[in-house]
Amino acid sequence: MGRVTTIGRAVREGIAPFVDLVYPPRCPACGEAIGEQGGLCAECWSGLAIPGDPSCAACQRPFGEVGPKEGSFCAPCLENAPIHDGIAAGTLYTEVSRKLVLALKHGRRIALAKLLARLMTARIPPTEGERLIVPVPLHRWRLWHRGFNQAGLLARELEKAGCGTLLVDAMRRTKRTPSLGGMGAKARARALAGAIEVSRPERIAGRNVLLVDDVLTSGATSTACVRALKRAGARTVTISCFARVLDEALDHAR
Ligand SMILES: [Zn+2]
Ligand SMILES: [Zn+2]
């Protein structure tokens, strides 16, 4: 095993210069040539929006510089107290983060998943004790169609970064759900009712869970996941996403 890893690394390092020669490093968001693999061009870096403080005490929605003071709740959380224990977003949804999520679906996945996970890790609050990392599940049919779950790719990188222990099959979709874009809140909740379940609740009971997704939009899917995890006895569920949509109107553009 150790030997295989060593050989693997030697091969990887040995061929890296050739890879750079054949595929010169390019920014995964815009295609611009860049200095080395695994980064973004300067312009795209500056097009990323990192959520800042002050922010909502329940969901970490940034208030902006002239917003209420730290410790306040945002309007949606005041209206409906969230059942999750916080949202750690690597970035806010912008044109650049949209392109990166698309590139993750279609491009050179491993290097990109590492980059996106690095941005996510920076925002994940520390926790006491062990944490489980659980990706939002894709339905079998979609998984088969696409070949991989991008939330799973990100979750694996978060485990490598030391954020917790990956439990890739903690949840499953029990039925196909239609695309939720353009649906009202009630229709979404109806479409998702009973669609997501925890496969073995005893693995979740009493644990702190980091629920991972690439994009967090209306939160209907993540809410269904959080509900299932809490029902299984999870102590806390913190949501970790790469790009958080704050303007719900953008849902329709997805
Ligand atoms: Zn770029
Ligand atoms: Zn909030």
Explain this structure.
This protein is α/β, with parallel strands linked by helices and 254 residues long. It folds into 2 domains: 1-46, no CATH class; 49-253, Rossmann fold, CATH 3.40.50. 37% of the residues lie in helices and 15% in strands. The protein has 9 helices and 7 strands; from the N terminus they run H-H-H-E-H-H-E-H-H-E-E-H-E-E-H-E. A 5-stranded parallel β-sheet has the order 1-7-6-2-3. Helix 9 links the parallel strand 6 (208-216) and strand 7 (236-244). The N and C termini lie far apart (43 Å). Residues 249-254 have low confidence and may be disordered. Bound molecules: zinc ion (2 copies). One zinc ion binds next to helix 3.
How far apart the termini lie comes to: 43 Å
In the residues, how many domains can be counted? 2
Helix content: 25-40%
Q: Radius of gyration in whole Å, from Cα?
A: 19 Å
| Basic shape | globular
Spans of 5+ residues with little confidence (pLDDT < 50)? 249-254
Judged by helices, strands and strand pairing, the structural class is alpha/beta
Assign the CATH class of the largest domain: Alpha Beta
Q: If you average the pLDDT, what whole number results?
A: 84
Q: Provide the spatial order of strands within the biggest beta sheet.
A: 1-7-6-2-3
From N to C, what is the helix and strand string?
A: HHHEHHEHHEEHEEHE
Bound molecules: zinc ion
Q: Summarize the biggest pleated sheet.
A: 5 strands, parallel
Total strand count, please? 7
